[in-house]
Amino acid sequence: MTPSDKALVPFVSVDHMMQLIHHVGLDDMLRGLADYIADDFSRWELFDKTPRVAAHSPEGVIELMPTSDGISYGFKYVNGHPKNTVDGLQTVTAFGLLADVDTGYPVLLTEMTMLTALRTAATSALVARALAPKEATTMAMIGNGAQSEFQSRAMQAIAGITHVRLYDIDPAATAKCAANLSQSGLNVTACASAEDAMVGAQIITTCTADKAHATILTDNMVGAGVHINAIGGDCPGKTEIAPAILERGDIFVEYPPQTRIEGDIQQLAADHPVTEIWEVLAGHKPGRTSDKQITIFDSVGFAIEDFSALRFVRDRINGTPFFHPLDLLADPDDPRDLYGMLNRAKA
User: Fold this and answer.
1) N or C end of the chain: smaller count of CB under 10 Å?
2) Which fold would CATH assign to domain 3-114+304-346?
3) What is the pLDDT of residues 142-178, one digit of tens each?
4) Residues noted as catalytic
5) Amino acid 328: pLDDT
6) pLDDT tens across 208-233, in order?
7) Given 3.40.1390.10, 3.40.50.300, 3.90.170.10, 3.40.50.720, which CATH number is that of 132-301?
8) What pLDDT, on a 0 to 100 scale, did the predictor assign at position 2?
9) Distance CA 28, CA 332 (A)
């Protein structure tokens, strides 16, 4: 887009997002998102931070996730409705906007259903690279829904895993995930139980959909020295990990005021110690300190990760055809004469 197009806002549709991913390459897209997230985490203290604004219902949640670094402002609209799959609908849908703080003008509007899957996976792998045992090769993927392939590919591209062991209570979901990963270069094993999936795994990822206080990982299932990437607990009343595991491990979170409401640590005392993951990635605090340590990334997703993803897409669509110029902003010849613009449209 050129300066003469200032009233047109680039809009990235789902189709254009998929074309962009194939244009960049999935591995490079995941690595690029991880780099942008790491960069923004290094600037963590510059950002406005607030727990997401949530409207809860018995069926799910609708949320707004805003933040700003003082130069750009971004937000994501996202829902989480586990029952949707019964009706053939996505559990999660999303869109996002990036704007210029100086003018308030939007500079990007984009789908974020696909993009959220990518940024969630990139964040998981970025953190696993910092916290998982060195030279980890195997991940147990518990919950084989829409996020599972992205998690597996990101762990491969960023954290270096070579084997993934799959389990879901629905065998069809596991078969779907295994088929989708068959050309990935990963060694994929479909497992009959969660316990079987964890055999030999140094990284355990839990990503289940039910909005319930579930116990996907019981205390006896987790031994010393593993890294747990807990990404399924993302709203009040939804958990995956037995409290005893949380008590045994060292817990890393994105933004404590949000995670204490929505994450697995909602099961613990409000003052239970946690480490903010940005402090580890920025080198201010240690991550893994021993071979026997259990590290737990209690991830619920945070607005700064979406901000990073929006920045990445804004930068990568430049010079490409992967967006629509959207007539979103009124642009009268005289900024004070909006009514006159309306009259001229009638003529």
Assistant:
1) C
2) ornithine cyclodeaminase, domain 1 (3.30.1780)
3) 999 999 999 999 999 999 999 999 999 999 999 999 9
4) 234
5) 95
6) 866 666 778 888 999 999 999 999 87
7) 3.40.50.720
8) 41
9) 41
293 secondary structure, DSSP code: P
Phi and psi at residue 141, to the nearest 5°: -110, 100
- Residue 272: CB atoms within 10 A of its CB come to 14
**Intra-chain end-to-end CA distance of the chain, in Å:** 29
Percent pLDDT > 90 in the chain is 84
285 DSSP assignment: S
pLDDT at 236: 77
Above 70 in pLDDT, residue 3? no
Under a CB-based contact definition with an 8 Å cutoff, are residues 174 and 190 in contact? Answer: yes
For residues 235 and 60, give the distance between their C-alpha atoms in angstroms, rounded to a whole number. 9
Predicted TM-score of the model (pTM) = 0.94
Structure tokens that stand for 346 in this block = 């009638």
Contacts of 343 by beta carbon, 8 Å cutoff, 6+ apart = none
Could you give the angle at which helices 113-131 and 26-42 cross, rounded to 10 degrees?
A: 70
